[in-house]
Amino acid sequence: MSSQPCCRVVLFLLLVLSQPIKAETPAQQTMPVAEKSACDEKVTDNEDWIDFTHRYLNESLCLPAEWVDSFFSTERLDEEVKPGSYVRWINDFVQTEGGEFNYVTIVRANLRLPKASHRLKLVIEGEQEDSLNDVISVNEDEVKTNVGLLYELFQSPRSNLGLKLNLSPELVLRYRYSYPFTNSVISRFTQDFFKSDDDAGSESRLDLEKRFNQALLLRWTNSYADTDLLDGIERISSLVLYQRLTESSALSYEAAVSTLSLPEYYHTNERLAIRYRRNFYRKWLFYELVPELSWPKLLPSDPRQQINIFTFRLEIKFNSISG
């Protein structure tokens, strides 16, 4: 069977898997409360109606996005709620059209150091950690591991400022700010400035999130990168709809495009994908099925060709490790 019909079959199966949730009632889709959420605000004795309204809106905005980011293991959970520690071991088995097969393993970690300030963490991450690699495929051969120290200079409920020193070596200054427009729409802005031996520049990212209900969240992300190694400015725009099926399974429908402004403005890649993610056997074990279509273009004069890709991911998570 060729890879293109195979991708179509998998896409159809994933769509079929999503149908049973339509019969569920809102009560069946409520958030699990087994553990205290990082979104919960402390209730004070002198709380008035203004404080109550703020706390209610903050929790209603945070909880659906927190579940999405935690379940799908996106970087935004770590950016916004600052969990104590986590380790992720990711194993990707990638089958590309034409019979090419790749295996990629990545370890990502964010660990509090024993007897050190709570503001200081040891960070292990893939080189493409902040390059929206969930929605724009990267070359597996280029994925490397960076080890560094992250120090939180400032933190408030809506913003934080951090300084990261990688052993590469590389210095990164990162600022984040979030703002709720309504009780169902929130924005998040991230600004990076970095300097390494062979590169320097900045990256800006804006996330807009729309919560429809406890089971549906839409996220629109736009990032702009201007570095010494890039010809012009690189922009990546993605639109992802997260659909919660059950407490142990979910789907994401992903569309993304990357562009480069020089030597002339053109799309370097376009991508469509469906991601089915399931927690199985143990609460720390996950697998993903990801059929996708990609249309890369290295140079403006190159022809654009369709590439069919299927990825099976096996992931092990270790959360809330005491440091």
Summarize the structure.
This protein is mainly beta and 323 residues long. The chain has one domain: Porin (Beta Barrel), CATH 2.40.160. The protein has three helices and 14 strands.
Write the layout of secondary structure elements.
Elements: H1 3-17, H2 49-72, H3 76-80, E1 86-96, E2 100-112, E3 120-126, E4 145-155, E5 159-166, E6 170-180, E7 185-196, E8 200-213, E9 216-227, E10 234-246, E11 249-260, E12 266-279, E13 285-294, E14 307-319
In CATH terms, the superfamily is monomeric porin ompg
What integer value in Å does the Rg equal?
A: 20 Å
Class from helix and strand fractions: mainly beta
The tally of strands reads 14
User: What percentage of amino acids are in beta strands?
Assistant: over 45%
Mean pLDDT: 79
Level-2 CATH architecture: Beta Barrel
Stretches where pLDDT is under 50 for at least 5 consecutive residues are 9-38
Q: Helix fraction?
A: 10-25%
Number of domains: 1
The largest β sheet comes out as: 14 strands, antiparallel, barrel
- Summarize the helix and strand pattern as letters: HHHEEEEEEEEEEEEEE
Distance between the termini: 50 Å
Main-sheet strand order equals: 1-2-3-4-5-6-7-8-9-10-11-12-13-14
Return the CATH topology.
Porin
| Shape, principal axes of CA atoms | globular
What can you tell me about this protein's structure?
The protein is mostly beta strands and 323 residues long. The protein has a single domain, classed as Porin (Beta Barrel), CATH 2.40.160.40. The protein is 14% helix and 50% strand. The protein has helices at 3-17, 49-72, 76-80, and strands at residues 86-96, 100-112, 120-126, 145-155, 159-166, 170-180, 185-196, 200-213, 216-227, 234-246, 249-260, 266-279, 285-294, 307-319. Strand 10 (234-246) and strand 11 (249-260) form a beta hairpin. It is globular and about 65 Å long. Mean pLDDT is 79; it is low at 9-38.
